[in-house]
Amino acid sequence: MANKQHRYGVRLDWTGNLGTGTSSYRGYSRDHGLSAPGKATILGSSDPAFRGDPARWNPEETLVGALSACHQLWYLALCSTNGIAVTAYEDDAEGVMEEETSGAGQFTGVVLRPRVTLAAGSDRDKALALHHDASAKCFIARSVNFPVTHEPVVTVAQD
Q: How far is it, in rounded angstroms, from Cα 114 to Cα 153?
C-alpha cells in the first residue's frame, strides 16, 4: 500500500496596517487572523516580547498547542484500541524558545505534562506506556527538530 498524502490549507490575513503599513518597526500591529473554510478564525499576533497583543495567540503558543493536541489525540486513540477507558485528560504543556543576539531563535524543547484519569479497573501501567507509543506516532512531534518529552500522571478512579 502506498503512503497517503494529506494537505492542509490555512489562510493568513494581516490586519495590522495602522495607516502607513510597515513604514516603521513600531508603526504597525502584528495582528493577523488564521482561517480555513467552515472554521472560526484564530486571532493571532506576535509574542508580547516582540510587540504583539497578549490577548491573541502567537505562533509559539500555537506550536506548543499543536504538539499537545496531537499527542492527546494519538493517546486517546491508542487507549481506546487497547481497552483502556480514559475519562479525563488535561495537559499543561510548556515550550522553551531561545532567542539569539541576532534576533533569530529556535525552540529547544517542549515538555508535555498530561494528567489522565482512567475508569476504575483500568491498567495504569499500560496507560503510562501508551504515552511513549503516542509520541512515536504524533505527526507534529515527528516533524520538529527539537525534543518533545512527556511527564504524564495517570490516575485510576476508585470503584
A: 6
pLDDT digits (tens, 9 = 90+) for 103-151: 999 999 999 999 999 999 999 999 999 999 999 999 999 999 999 999 9
| pTM reported for the whole predicted model | 0.92
Residue with cell 494529506: 6
Cell for 121? 479497573
d(C-alpha 122, C-alpha 113), whole Å: 20
Q: Is 78 helix (H, G, I), strand (E, B) or coil?
A: helix
**Contact yes or no for 108/96 (Cβ under 8 A):** yes
Backbone φ and ψ for 88, nearest 5 degrees, come out as -155, 145
User: Which of 97, 79, 54, 93 lies closest to 137 in space, CA to CA?
Assistant: 79
Write the pLDDT tens digit of every residue in 5-53.
999 999 999 999 999 999 998 999 999 999 999 999 999 999 999 999 9
What 124-133 contacts at long range (C-beta under 8 Å, 24+ apart), as own/partner pairs, is 124/154, 124/155, 124/156, 126/82, 126/84, 127/79, 127/84, 127/86, 127/154, 128/152, 128/154, 130/75, 130/78, 130/79, 130/82, 130/84, 131/71, 131/75, 133/74, 133/78
